[in-house]
Amino acid sequence: METMSRRKYRAIQAPIDEDIIKKLVPNQYSSPLNKIFTLCLVLRIINSLLVQTYFNPDEHWQSLEVSHRIAFGYGHLTWEWRKGLRSYLHPLLFAAIYKILAFLRLDSPWFMTRTPRLLQSIFAAFGDLYLYKLSKVLFGDSVASWALFTQLTNWFMFFCITRTLSNSLESVLMLVSLYYWPCIRVSPNVISSSSRKFALAMAALACVIRPTSAIIWIYVGTLELLLARDKLKFVLLDVIPIGGLVLGLTTLLDRLMYGSWVIVPLNFVKFNFLSSGGDYYGTHPWHWYFSQGFTVMVFTYLPFSLAGFIMSKQWKLCGLVAWVLGTYSLLGHKEFRFVLPVLPLALMFSGYSLAKLCPSELSKRKLRESSSSYVKRLTKLQMAVFFLLFTNIPMALYMSMVHQRGTEDVMNYLSKEASENKVKNILFLTPCHATPYYSTLHHDLPMRFLDCTPSEEKGILDESDQFLLHPLDFATELVRNWSLPSHIVVFDAQEKLLKEFLLARGFREVRRFFHAHFKVDRELQSSVVVYALQGY
User: Fold this and answer.
1) Bridge partners, residue 527, by sequence
2) Measured CA distances, 286 to 282, 292, 326, 343 (Å)
3) What global pTM score does this model have?
4) Residue 157 near residue 301, CB atoms below 8 Å
5) CA distances (Å), 97 to each of 52, 107, 112, in order?
6) Do both 34 and 155 map to the same domain?
7) Residues 386, 391, 392, 398: what is their CA dihedral angle, to the nearest 10 degrees?
8) How many domains is the chain partitioned into structurally?
9) Rounded CA gap, 465 and 405, in Å?
10) Shared domain check, 309 and 411
11) Per-residue model confidence as pLDDT tens digits over 393-412
12) What's the domain range around 45?
């Protein structure tokens, strides 16, 4: 009787404070999934429109630039595409959008830059929905609501998830797939074998789009193999047929686009793992993800995530986060976006610890014994929510709308100038891939940027590095071998060394765009400057 009473009391909330809880907490009571998806979609659309800064070259050069070439016949293909390291599946998504815009005659600069991110915002909303569904299956409604809250308010998710990076779509596919894996659930038997097949298909797609996603699915697949009763069936009737089908279809797609047989995952592994080709773009110490990278991404949610890891005792997903961070730590080249897929899982555990702070977790008997306990919990929760919002929202807005926006603004400006026939050709005297390219300009004009293709021989500096070491000497030699451009784009750090050189050759400053308040990888690049030849 005593046990039944306790259960009954746990199900009852204090009536006098129910309205307060409803206002403070994201709806704790079961909400229709369509309403949750609509909320996520609206917020992610707004999110995508607010993102106006430059984060990583791959957002443009490995997706939109390739898509623009497919749709309009011109666009630059980087060395990765010449070596067959990328699949065309991801760029084709945005190429289809470009084709629709062209058909509707809406391929203006605004639509060309915003529509791809709007498409990614739809994918991101599905990711939010499936994080909610996964949290609900594992921990219940209250944790699911708080997990969604953390996902929608974390600064790095806001900053990154609506960008057209392959990592963003990979993260969404991971969340969708995890929801259907039997081994992840508390009761694996409640899910059908067809759901596991769907989970495998999503995992295979993630690996095609981003071959390093295999790191995640090696862990999950091994876990499924250990826990599944039908191990032989899992391998022979699920993994091999579904993986083979997805790999076969995408290989045929790449055969069509490349013009020859290319097995992208194999080439990717050879270059990045067997030859350490990724190290060409810089290396970090082994502990970087733990001491800086992932810590910065989780940000002020970190103590709540750690508390959630400990309290939940959900070792499967905790192990997945640790496995991914540990495995990527073994690689020399490290970036924030590489571990983006496990960020939602860390945030889910933040939601778990926040849910435990909720006053509704107190039983009715405890509330009768001490009303101060309720007040203390409510105060702690209010302070936690205020702290998280106060730290994450300004960070999200600053990084998405202010920091490193000059390279986006300069291309939007040049696109408008090109529309009015005020631009003939453009030279970018910047580190390579520092700006968007034809996908933003959307005019078939001659353009030149400093190449940074990895050399076959060690110790050979690429054009970008040569320029940064000796800007004036490099620019002098470059101009001798190339006719004077109508416009030159340069960062202010190098402009100081090149100003007299440019003025002596008939160039004048026409626009200057703010870029950043602080440096990231190199010296401070506070502004981006456009110089035009006399007469333009």
Assistant:
1) 514
2) 13, 11, 9, 19
3) 0.89
4) no
5) 20, 10, 9
6) yes
7) 140
8) 2
9) 23
10) no
11) 999 999 999 999 999 999 99
12) 26-171+279-357
